[in-house]
Amino acid sequence: MPRLPADLRDTVARALAEDVGRGDVTAVLVPEDDDASAVVTSREHAVLAGGPWFDEVFLQVSDGAAQVNWMARDGDVIRPNQMLCTLDGRARHLLTAERTALNFLQTLSGTATITRHYVKRVQGTPARILDTRKTVPGLRTAQKYAVACGGGTNHRMGLYDAVLIKENHIAAAGSITAAVADARRKLSNQAVEVEVEDLVQLREALASEVDRILLDNFTVEDLTRAVAITGGRIPLEASGNVNLKTIADVAASGVDFVSVGGITKHIHAVDLSMRFV
Questions:
Q1: Distances 121 to 124, 129, 151, 208, 244 between C-alpha atoms, Å
Q2: Rounded distance between C-alpha atoms, residue 114 and residue 131, angstroms
Q3: What residues are annotated to the active site?
Q4: Residue 153 has what DSSP assignment?
Q5: Measured between alpha carbons, how far is residue 220 from residues 132, 149, 242, 256 in Å?
Q6: Is 222 within 8 Å of 192 (Cβ atoms)?
Q7: How does DSSP assign 188-254, residue by residue?
Q8: Please, are residues 72 and 126 in contact by the beta-carbon 8 Å criterion?
Q9: pLDDT value of residue 1
């Protein structure tokens, strides 16, 4: 399983503050001391992700009094009408935590599910599916965890942990060569990746001895040419206009990675239900 992010508790606290605010005014209709049990079920096929965020919501709302018992774990393929977990605790706590907990579980399971679809489409090729920074604001680390649950690979977390020289950096520096040289001088301890838009730029990037090259919006034919030109010297990453219809052909070109923004931004929240029993 992927490592849990350090900001998990803070992410949950922000989500609860957004939803609960000064307090759940509807939950006061339920007697304070009433206990309840509930069950969460899936209504569709999916890949489960987000259990730790779900647990943390109930932990924070109930001060640890609510109990969550899982019958499935993150990364599992789940089916319609499958029982995912049961809950026991104060009725008010379960009611207050319900929506925020399900929001995390549905969204992150949606991310893991679409990632798994892409991963399956590239089986038999050397390509690995990468995520991007095109994530839901505030859910960067959570969605990257979900991508890993779906079998994908995490790219850089943000602007702070890897150098990726893109078209505007190149324009500002004057050339790929100049931009890479500047990065090597100022960020000598960082690997350097550069984005190229054609085979001419590819050759310039290769001459600059970068650590990885991103092939932006290349046709499949040009991806194949780029792989041949590079000859395995450095990893190649394809990006741009990749979807489930095109991913197999892109991966078959021989690139090492395919980055897909859609696995974190074009997501379908998985249909889940929590009901009192």
A1: 9, 10, 12, 33, 8
A2: 11
A3: 99, 134, 166, 195, 216
A4: B
A5: 21, 28, 11, 14
A6: no
A7: TTS-EEEEESSHHHHHHHHHTT-SEEEEET--HHHHHHHHHHHTTSS-EEEESS--TTTHHHHHHTT
A8: no
A9: 81
Pairing of strands 212-216, 236-239: parallel
Q: Domain 120-265 carries which CATH code? A: 3.20.20.70
Separation of first and last alpha carbons in the chain: 31
Report whether 192 contacts 180 (CB < 8 A): yes
Q: What pTM did the predictor assign?
A: 0.96
CA-CA distance, 268 to 106, in Å (whole number)? 9
CATH entry, 8-116+268-276, from 3.40.50.720, 3.90.1170.20, 3.20.20.80, 1.25.40.10:
3.90.1170.20
pLDDT digits (tens, 9 = 90+) for 212-263: 999 999 999 999 999 999 999 999 999 998 999 999 999 999 999 999 999 9
Domains of the chain, by residue range, sit at: 8-116+268-276, 120-265
Question: Cα-flanking dihedrals φ and ψ of residue 3, to 5°?
Answer: -70, 140
Same topology, domains 8-116+268-276 and 120-265? Answer is: no
